[in-house]
Fold this protein.
Amino acid sequence: MQLVLNFPVASHGVGQEFSIRRQAARVEASLHTDGDYTPQFLLKHMGKDLRLALASAGTAPLPQTQALMKPYQTAIERGLGDDNFADLRVNRQAQRLSPNSFCWRETPKIAYSGRVRLRILDKYLLREFAWPLIYSFDAFLLLFVVHDLLENLSEFLRQHARIGMILRYYLIVLPEPIVFILPLAVLLGVLFCLSMLGRHNELLAMRASGVSIWRLGLPFFVVGAIASAAAFGVSEKFVPQSRERAESLQRQMRGLPAVLKRQNFFFSNSQDRRDWYAREFDPEQNVMEDVAFYVRTSDGKPVMDMFARRAVWTEKRWRFEDARLVQPPAADVYVAATNFPFITETPKRLIMESKHYQEMTSTELRRFARSLRYTGRASQQAPYLVEMHGRYAMPLTCLIVIVLGVPLGMQVSRRGPMMGVGLALVSVVAFFILTRLSLQLGHGGRVPPVMAAWLPNAIFGTIGAILLWRAR
């Protein structure tokens, strides 16, 4: 059924008149979208409210309310008083006709395509949600840029950095804060949207039309799932490289080589009992300077020590130049250039294992944690496993805040949008404090990595699910 109204009606209480805005025609087109045709507000009750409103108005003119009274009275006389009040159809041209010219007809329930109604309701809710989301995201992103610019402004001025290079710098560093800003913007957007809808009685109209809270929140859940997928893609594709690339760009601003050479490089291969040390390691050229290479037995006794002026990766093996071999009790051996087939460490492996865990992708984190376990260093796995699980848990926060925000938005909808803003900020601050505490406990090995990464999502997701179930 469909109710088409372009003018005020008196409803829900004696003399209380509220205006269904022009968008109400779109909202009311979503009646019975979940297949539940149980009357939500009886037609005879609407007729009673119309009579009471006219009686309370006295001599005050209410022409539109008077015009509505005729079709409602006719419907009640025909024995349809126990049907849904929205089953009444009023012609748009009735505004220009006399009350006696009004007619009503019961519209078959199958006369309207559910697909069309869903599309209208979804478009309306998404449009109302889009602007708060965009404004919130832009505002928080701008705050980050301004704060970071004020901190680095003196450095930019001292290095005479050009505008283009500064813009390039922020394009590199922005992916990491985007992953944290997106959940906050989504939560603030949904609370603000529902607050505005409730303030104008649009939520009341939707619920009275038979739209369940699950159906009402469906567009928001879809947006939350899309935001979670986008946040995961950013955190996996751009965040691990952002720190290294930002440091490289800062070196260019200072007139230094873009590629950062690793000083005092050290790598330990516990499985094969081999240790590497180099005064300098150039990852781009795959060259080491002043190399020391040690091989030990299982009980720590030296097997071979090698000291070389230079080591170069060529033809899939390391070539050591100006090397001195120490294999006691034999005398030292000096060679101009040599290589050893048993040395299997590739530059890629040396670089990856010398990375900070925040600079690795989730795949690299998983592989490195597995190699630590295989080489007897399982006690060192915790930071890498916590970071790996956090790469999956953090993006999912966008969907968790929707589960939490929809029922909260229903509760604060009558208190105004500022209440929604304040509640969003309190919720996000509490969430990030719990997240930081949980991750620190995980890095220290106090709690299992899976629990450390997923505990905040589990707590807030459970709270949101309970509120959502109670709000139905």
User: Anything to note?
Assistant: The first helix runs from residue 24 to 28.
